[in-house]
Amino acid sequence: MIRPTHPKKEVEEALRHAEGHGWRIEVGGDHAWGRVYCPYKDAVCRCGEFCITSIWSTPKNPGNHARALRRVVGNCSTHRNRRDADYDAKE
């Protein structure tokens, strides 16, 4: 099923970035437009509380919200470890 696009262009680009890295996006919820879920489920990852992030429908500053979403994807410890391992293997 295709998810609806986010009304803010910057946030939609950040969501596509997250999807490109395997993150799952669920639209709907109580107060948020949706949520972003980490694809990794191992003990090293900090996914228990930090890698689930709310997506606001009308953020005060869409650019800042988009940067925060990208930061969550980039700071996921399992994602970072896998990226570093892939980099080391190429050298």
What's the structural blueprint in terms of helices and strands?
Elements: H1 9-20, E1 24-27, E2 34-37, E3 52-55, H2 62-75, H3 77-90
Antiparallel strand pairs: 1-2, 2-3
Helix pairs in contact: 1-2
Question: What report would you give on this structure?
Answer:
There is one protein chain. By secondary structure, the chain is of the alpha+beta class. It is 44% helix and 13% strand. It is built from three helices and three strands. It has a three-stranded antiparallel sheet with strand order 1-2-3, with helices on one face. A hairpin with a 6-residue loop joins strand 1 (24-27) and strand 2. Helix 1 packs parallel to helix 2 (62-75).
Computed structural class:
alpha+beta
Distance between the termini: 39 Å
Largest sheet: 3 strands, antiparallel
Helix content: 40-55%
User: Residue ranges: pLDDT <50 for 5 or more in a row?
Assistant: none
Name the helix and strand elements from N-terminus to C-terminus, one letter apiece: HEEEHH
- Per the principal axes of the C-alpha atoms, what is the gross shape? globular
Q: Largest beta sheet: what is the strand line-up? A: 1-2-3
Taken as a percent bin, the fraction of beta residues is: 5-15%
Radius of gyration, taken over Cα atoms and rounded to an integer in Å: 14 Å
User: How many H/I helices?
Assistant: 3
